Recover the amino acids of this structure.
């Protein structure tokens, strides 16, 4: 197991914690968790524990919203053909499905368009503009893309095609010449919340349109299951407005999801009474993404637009099959990547840069993330597209600015784009070795040993006697969990291990997990604890069963009709 850094909060302001404990009648660990999230008084706690749709901001606060609504109204009034254009990932496809559900419910002259990942690439494409021109579309509404498509928006304008752009990515200094650009990250946009998903921006557009035209009779909140899937899959912060949208979106998934999402939840084994952000991320998102990775992202849109159970189930099984195929390819390439690192003696490097000409372009980003799980360092995985041109996906480790490092290698790249955590690039084969060497040198000169060690963010120290059903019920009310509102992680010390054993999962004999009973000096409570992939700790715990510390999360375990609290181990140390 890799050694991990435990990052504990600075010493708690006990007076503040005591005041919060008294104000909302919670225990010290709960108060500390809330303070870590910036919640220090009764009113903030009330908003946090009781999200309300009334907390959503006025959509007309977003720059460009009035112009966007006016242009859509004019298009509908004159019977123009409208093309709903979105990216091929989960955020893009949920956005397109959401907007098409809305617009097609009262307007017939609309279609949707998803670019081909391999033929057209990300964002607005020339092929997409040509399609609009050939089929007499005079308005294109982009979702989750378009903010940097200045040239193509300008070209479309000359062809008599207007754009309304709904995006959430960082804009350049000069915005595209669209009729309206909706992006809360615009420097001139006063919208109070900046972290909406692309689907979230599209939702605010729908909300604004319906506020000005209530006679349409469409309920925008009926779309929140799609918005929730986009928020979860795009890893945007679960804070502010996103937290409200995700909270009610999860309720929609649990009670009355769109038929396509209901069918996909069924094939993913997700119970409607137990839907969480994590289950959406690991159960629904990979299946939706698999369509664009291996086939055509339009399959995912068709699933989400299905109105009857039978076609929805057929589409869901199709996406599930694509995802299984994706996993098989992912496993093979990940295995080959590990072998390449070992064979070339690159285990001690500060970066990973790997290339094979026949690796599948649709999974190299996943493989980069898999390599980081094992070696924890900035990673680039490359494959060949044509005629000596390589394309790659890069992923970083927490705290290291990947984009800045690639900028210092830009003379060796044909093009690149992305952000601190992830990027894409193309380069010529003859520059591969020079890039590998330069990237290693740049990262080595800037990265610290701490950043090369995975970290665990700890919320608070805790006694095992503090963990009880009431404590867990309050903790559950902190959900939905995700970036910016992570599931609480605790540290307990002076622990005692009993009944230690390693075991393998039935469906994976190569797995190696850990199970034990945990007690603590001075406490009466004991808990079953499980550590996935941590079976190698079993021998050490048997030899040294006392006086260790453990980082863990708390969850419910349901087995044979019995419900108990269980600890999910993050790390163990004897220091």
């Amino acid at each position: 197991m890799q050694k991990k850094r435990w990052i504990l909060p600075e010493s708690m302001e006990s007076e503040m914690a005591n005041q919060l404990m008294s104000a909302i009648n919670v225990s010290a660990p709960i108060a500390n968790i809330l303070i870590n999230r910036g919640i220090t008084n009764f009113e903030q706690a009330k908003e946090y524990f009781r999200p309300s749709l009334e907390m959503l901001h006025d959509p007309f606060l977003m720059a460009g919203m009035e112009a966007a609504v006016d242009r859509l109204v004019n298009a509908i009034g004159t019977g123009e053909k409208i093309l709903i254009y979105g990216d091929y990932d989960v955020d893009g496809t949920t956005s397109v499905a959401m907007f098409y559900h809305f617009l097609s419910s009262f307007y017939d002259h609309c279609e949707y368009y998803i670019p081909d990942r391999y033929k057209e690439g990300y964002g607005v494409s020339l092929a997409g503009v040509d399609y609009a021109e050939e089929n007499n579309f005079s308005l294109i509404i982009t979702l989750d893309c378009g903010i940097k498509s200045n040239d193509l928006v300008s070209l479309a304008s000359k062809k008599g095609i207007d754009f309304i752009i709904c995006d959430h990515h960082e804009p350049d200094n000069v915005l595209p010449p669209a009729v309206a650009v909706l992006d809360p990250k615009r420097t001139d946009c006063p919208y109070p919340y900046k972290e909406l998903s692309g689907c979230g921006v599209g939702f605010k557009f729908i909300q604004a349109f319906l506020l000005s035209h209530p006679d349409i009779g469409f309920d925008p909140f009926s779309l929140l299951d799609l918005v929730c899937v986009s928020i979860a899959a795009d890893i945007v912060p679960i804070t502010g407005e996103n937290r409200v949208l995700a909270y009610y979106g999860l309720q929609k998934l649990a009670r009355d999801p769109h038929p396509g999402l209901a069918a996909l939840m069924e094939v993913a084994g997700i119970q409607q009474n137990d839907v969480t952000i994590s289950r959406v991320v690991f159960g629904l998102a990979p299946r939706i993404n698999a369509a664009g990775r291996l086939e055509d992202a339009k399959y995912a849109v068709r699933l989400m637009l299905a109105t009857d159970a039978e076609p929805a189930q057929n589409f869901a099984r199709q996406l599930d099959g694509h995802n299984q195929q994706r996993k098989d390819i992912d496993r093979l390439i990940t295995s080959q990547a590990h072998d390449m690192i070992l064979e070339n003696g690159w285990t001690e490097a500060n970066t990973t840069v790997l290339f094979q000409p026949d690796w599948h372009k649709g999974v190299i980003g996943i493989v980069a993330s898999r390599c980081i799980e094992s070696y924890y360092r900035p990673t680039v995985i490359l494959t060949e597209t044509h005629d000596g041109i390589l394309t790659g996906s890069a992923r970083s480790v927490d705290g290291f600015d990947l984009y800045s490092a690639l900028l210092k290698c830009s003379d060796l790249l044909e093009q690149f784009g992305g952000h601190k955590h992830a990027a894409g690039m193309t380069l010529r084969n003859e520059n591969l070795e020079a890039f590998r060497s330069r990237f290693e040198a740049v990262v080595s000169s800037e990265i610290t040993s701490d950043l090369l060690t995975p970290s665990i963010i700890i919320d608070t120290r805790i006694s095992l006697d503090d963990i009880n059903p009431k404590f867990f019920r309050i903790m559950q009310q902190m959900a939905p969990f995700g970036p910016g509102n992570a599931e609480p992680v605790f540290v307990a010390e002076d622990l005692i291990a009993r009944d230690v054993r390693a075991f393998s999962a039935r469906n994976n004999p190569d797995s190696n997990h850990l199970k034990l009973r945990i007690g603590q000096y001075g406490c009466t409570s004991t808990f079953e604890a499980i550590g996935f992939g941590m079976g190698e700790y079993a021998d050490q715990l048997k030899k040294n069963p006392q006086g260790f510390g453990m980082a863990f999360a708390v969850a419910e375990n349901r087995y044979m009709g019995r419900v108990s609290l269980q600890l999910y181990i993050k790390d163990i140390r004897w220091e």
Q: What stands out?
A: The chain has a mean pLDDT of 94. The two ends are 16 Å apart (CA to CA).
